[in-house]
Specification:
The chain has 469 residues and is an alpha+beta fold. The chain has 13 helices and 19 strands. The strands form four sheets. An eight-stranded antiparallel beta barrel has the order 12-13-14-15-16-17-18-19. Strands 1-4-3-10-9-8-7 form a seven-stranded antiparallel beta sheet. The protein has a two-stranded parallel ribbon with strand order 2-11. It has two domains: 284 residues, DD-peptidase/beta-lactamase superfamily (Beta-lactamase), CATH 3.40.710; 90 residues. The longest helix is centred in the middle third of the chain and has 16 residues. A hairpin with a 2-residue loop joins strand 18 and strand 19.
Length: 469
């Protein structure tokens, strides 16, 4: 077991605490093989993630919080009050802001967004006067808006205004946000759409987005270790530095995200957990902060199970809302069950933190007997060795966004198969059929092509084409 630094609070309520810390599991179990469990520090080292901070929610209350650090010259300085970038989880907080503003009569979620953008107007696109872009459609990623996400800006570089981001004007480094499909016809995840919403709210209410969030969400929920300030001021509370997939620190500690509604939140797991608890409480009972009707509206999914900044999935006891996020050097995730009031928030300061976060969620699910988020089971089976041999070599993803080389290798040593991933390196894969494998560590399935002149792989649903043998 690796040594590390850990701080925790509410230990008296945390009888499951040790079983979670030592109960991290791979995403897929192979039938006939013993189930492996790992210590949190083992997995942090494996994924090159220096720190992870968590909040576990039980019966609608924060049960315990903890922060784990790998040994380093600077370790031991973090606590549960250290802020992390929440990235796309910011959209959940934006959804709550919109619900509160609509409840107060400050905005009409179904009005043409051009009315809130004046004097700016959206350029001609697939929207029409009879089928306009609205705040509701922007919130649910059904407005047809472009620009899926944002890479961030290095500290010290020129930071664009919200207008410049939306219009694609320098110093913005992303294209203009346009409407390329008919509003309401299709789900298209769009951080650009959320930035358009940010601009609409800023102009209509005549406040910065940071001020709006502080007044309408953060202060009412006593989220005292949270902010949408981008960049962070020198007086900001303690905050983590991000790390790339290879473990190197992000230049300046963290990139700047002026697209605050989509990606700008700095927060702690406990602050975020209390926000999730407030949303659930409002949905079940309502209150002055948010009525039951407004909360239910926020949690009613449109297309692809997406509501106001949250994915809402499952039925009965499995019904939950959830989201994940990733900025440069930061990965986070949360889950909140509506019925039981159980949930978890996991925040990391490493690009590979999505792997670690998934394993931590599974450890919590096992310790607290959740109805979901258990490891999947896979049955090993014989592979077609001739087809597999023809697929050995290096591949390139056809659609790729990442800060690491676009190169995947299918390899075989003796009877063992592996996939060399650009962010993790070699991972074991197990044949599950004549043309298929599964990677127990990542949970991804790998499907080989058949009868193609140029072999390709489908890795977790993403196509990768052979470039070298």
């Amino acid at each position: 077991m690796l040594a590390g630094c850990a701080t925790s609070r509410r230990a008296d309520m945390a009888e499951k605490h040790p079983s979670v810390e030592g109960g991290l599991m791979l995403r897929t179990n192979i039938q006939g093989e013993p189930t492996q469990t790992f210590d949190v520090y083992e997995r942090m080292k494996r994924y090159r993630v220096p720190a992870v901070s968590v909040a576990v929610i039980q019966n609608g209350k924060v049960s315990w919080t903890a922060t784990y650090e790998l040994p380093s010259p600077t370790s031991g300085k973090m606590s549960e009050r250290t802020m992390f970038q929440a990235a796309s989880i910011s959209k959940s907080v934006t959804g709550l802001l919109a619900a509160r503003l609509a409840q107060a009569g400050k905005v009409d979620l179904d009005a043409n967004v051009d009315a809130y953008l004046a004097p700016l107007q959206l350029p001609p696109g697939k929207q029409t006067p009879a089928n306009p872009v609205t705040l509701r459609k922007l919130l649910s990623h059904t407005a047809g808006a472009t620009v899926s996400g944002f890479p961030g800006y290095k500290p010290g570089s020129a930071i664009p205004t919200t207008d410049q981001v939306v219009l694609g004007q320098a110093p913005a480094i992303t294209p203009a946000v346009t409407i390329d499909t008919a509003p309401g016809s299709k789900y298209t995840y769009s951080g650009g759409g959320y930035t358009l919403l940010q601009l609409a709210l800023e102009r209509h209410v005549d406040m910065t987005f940071e001020q709006l969030m502080k007044q309408w969400v953060l202060d009412p929920l006593s989220m005292n270790h949270s902010t949408f300030a981008q960049p962070l001021p020198a007086s900001a509370p303690a905050h983590a530095s991000g790390h790339f997939f290879d473990g190197t620190e992000v230049e300046g500690g963290a990139y700047v995200y002026p697209e605050e509604a989509a990606a700008g939140l700095w927060t702690t797991p406990e602050d975020l957990a209390n926000l999730l608890i407030a949303i659930r409480h409002a949905a079940l009972e309502g209150g002055p902060f948010l009525s039951s009707a407004s909360a239910q509206e926020m949690l009613t999914p449109k297309l692809n199970n997406y509501a106001f900044g949250v994915f809402v999935v499952g039925e009965g006891e499995r019904r939950r809302f959830m989201h994940s996020g990733g900025n440069a050097g930061f990965k986070s995730t949360y889950v909140m069950f509506l019925g039981s009031g159980n949930g978890v928030v996991v925040m990391t300061n490493g690009d590979n933190g999505s792997y670690l976060g998934g394993e931590f969620v599974k450890a919590v699910a096992m310790a607290y007997h959740w109805p979901d988020f258990r490891p999947r089971d896979a049955v090993p089976a014989a592979v077609d060795h001739d087809v597999a041999a023809a697929h050995l070599g290096s591949y390139r993803y056809e659609k790729f966004e990442g800060r690491f080389p676009n190169r995947v290798v299918l390899a075989k040593q003796g009877s063992d198969w592996s996939l060399v991933l650009p962010d993790l390196g070699p991972v074991r894969i197990v044949p599950t059929g004549p043309l298929s494998f599964v990677a127990p560590e990542t949970g991804e399935t790998i499907e080989m092509s058949s009868g193609q002149e140029l072999p390709f792989l489908m890795i977790g649903g993403r196509k990768a084409t052979l470039v070298a043998r």
